[in-house]
Design a protein that fits this description.
InterPro entries: ATP-cone_dom (IPR005144), NrdR-like_N (IPR055173), RNR_NrdR-like (IPR003796)
Family: Belongs to the NrdR family.
Organism: Candidatus Dormiibacter inghamiae
Cofactor: Zn(2+)
Order of helices and strands: EEEEEHHEHHH
Strand order of the largest sheet: 1-2-3
Number of domains: 2
Radius of gyration: 23 Å
Structural class: alpha+beta
Distance between the termini: 61 Å
Function: Negatively regulates transcription of bacterial ribonucleotide reductase nrd genes and operons by binding to NrdR-boxes.
Number of strands: 6
């Protein structure tokens, strides 16, 4: 690395700390030539991964798109955007830990539904109705019945 001001090749690190988000290391550097100070950020280089859609198409994994789907499912529910961002980050992290470069969209959908079911049952039903492509009210009712019976089992287990 060279000084951005004078191009001198020798620098020293004055201070090092985690960035505010915790995804990078912030370093204050000083040029040994011109003595100017500047900040650099060191990040882990992540390998992109792809989502394999139901029709076989491949798309880049897009966290904002996932967030948008969650936002629609939780519209007018008392769920903060921060909670949704955390959910997206957890899902992305879990997907990266698998080490796979290609991930079926069905895997991502199931991860989302599992988390939504615990977070908000109405949002879960909304998401499931689109994800599972419910064709009529019987499909919706069947899913609602599953949620209600699951809730009942949890109550009796306590």
């Amino acid at each position: 690395m060279r000084c951005p001001f004078c191009g001198h090749p020798e620098l020293k690190v004055v201070d090092s700390r985690d960035s505010e988000v915790g995804e990078a290391i912030r370093r204050r550097r000083e040029c040994l030539g011109c003595e100017q100070r500047f900040t650099t950020y060191e990040r882990i280089e992540t390998v992109p991964f792809y989502v394999i859609k139901k029709d076989g198409r491949r798309e880049d994994f897009d966290p904002p798109k996932l967030f948008g789907g969650l936002k629609k499912a939780t519209d007018k529910r008392d769920i903060s955007p921060e909670k949704l961002q955390t959910m997206v980050a957890q899902i992305e992290s879990e997907l990266r830990r698998t080490g796979r470069v290609e991930i079926p969209s069905t895997d991502i959908g199931e991860m989302v539904m599992s988390r939504l079911k615990d977070l908000d049952e109405v949002a879960y039903i909304r998401f499931a109705s689109v994800y599972r492509q419910f064709m009529d009210l019987q499909d919706v009712r069947g899913e609602i019945d599953k949620v209600l019976s699951s809730r009942q089992r949890q109550k009796t287990a306590r």
